[in-house]
Amino acid sequence: MGDGLMEWTLRTRDELLTLFATQPESTADAVIALQTAFFALAQRLPDLERQVHQTSQNSHQPPSKDNVFDPPTPKSLRPKSTRPSGGQLGHPGAQLEMRDTPDAVVLHRPPHCQHCGTTFPEAVEPTAYDRRQVFDLKIKVDVTEHRAMTITCVACGEDTTAEFPEAVSAPVQYGPGVYTFLSYGNVYQLLPADRLCEMFEDLTGHSISQGTLFRTTARLSEQLRDYEDAVKQELLAAPVVNFDESGAGVGKNLYWLHVASTSQATYYRIDPKRGAQAMDAMGILPGYTGIAEHDGWAPYGKYHFCQHALCNQHHERELQGVIEHDHQPWAQDLIDHLHTIKTARATAIAAGRDALTDGQLTTFTARYREIVETGLAENPRQTAPEGVKVKGKVKQTKARNLLERLDRYQADTLRFMHDFRVPYTNNQAEQDIRMIKVHQKISGSFRSTAGADIFCRIRGYISTLKKRGLPVWENLRRAHEGKPFIPKSNTS
Known about the structure:
This protein is of the alpha/beta class. It is built from 17 helices and seven strands.
């Protein structure tokens, strides 16, 4: 295309008329080639213009790719709330309260009477106390020595030595409290290995190596195998599961982090592939029979045993792009209509109902069809002009592609309207995947696939604990002791 344009020589009108008169065939071929080149350029131009103004607010582009020197103006697609900012009514506060049994008591005795100056003898007892308490932090490593006694038998004269506890396997070792601190800081608080080891030494006075940290997380991951199997079974039995995937660096290669989650459980898997091959290896979607909610990426459509629900937050961002770039009113109409359905659903739930009325469903569906058909009419399918040669399919506009998806997958788009178990968005999976992305920003790529697998299993365990309101520290310690939390297979 570019070479053809470069070879074209600008000619005057009279020269062109002469060429058509003397060389009609070759001149017509040249014009057709030029038309083809210009058609290809005309198809590319809208995409290039859109890319210039594309942000995370109006497309699938992640915030990390926004222009840091000219970031997009923050905008929320949510309707404005009527609630005041700050803590809401009924929100539990947090404040210090005096303890009846403090760990230590420090007495402050007045030296003399503030009225007459008389010195108080030590034998004079106080008549009252004014109390104040200071909550402070002391971090120290306790050393417990285990001694296995040897006793000589009075009957036979032979010696018998006691067995050490199974967990005490070396002459000198760390205990579960230290291991919990390391895994908590590294996997939950996302502290890089070098900074975590430095902090441990600063707080306790004990030096610890990064090798110890890596061995600690590897052992913990092994202890969580049964937990992970139980979580996968729970997800397979859940009525709705949210799915998402995002790029993650492993060494110098691009891998993909996949997540399957509910409000009660999280499962992560790292894989060199993004599509169906990785989803099959994840072992959930191939046998899942519930409702899979996701962003509409094509490989999810391969799984036919389950129903599908599309994330309407993604739709709203794409519709916002149509509003900003194409200035087409139907896109705003559809955003408003989706919000109307969402509000009606929330009202029904608040009233204790588990479904919209038949009349509401009919009205909302008809309005959805009306808006989509208006958009389709405003964005007809692109075809090549007569005489223009095009390789493959003619590329469609972003608006047309979105409309065809909204048309074809109407049931998946509106599934939240028909089934109140289905969330309006796929935010559950996006939020669950976000913390892994934060880890990448702090610590960079994983060094190896083994390290990535270890991190994902432990992080999934922590995420599941948080969702269930279970204490992270206590259950990490229990896992280090070989007694991890394991969800029941019949919960969802």
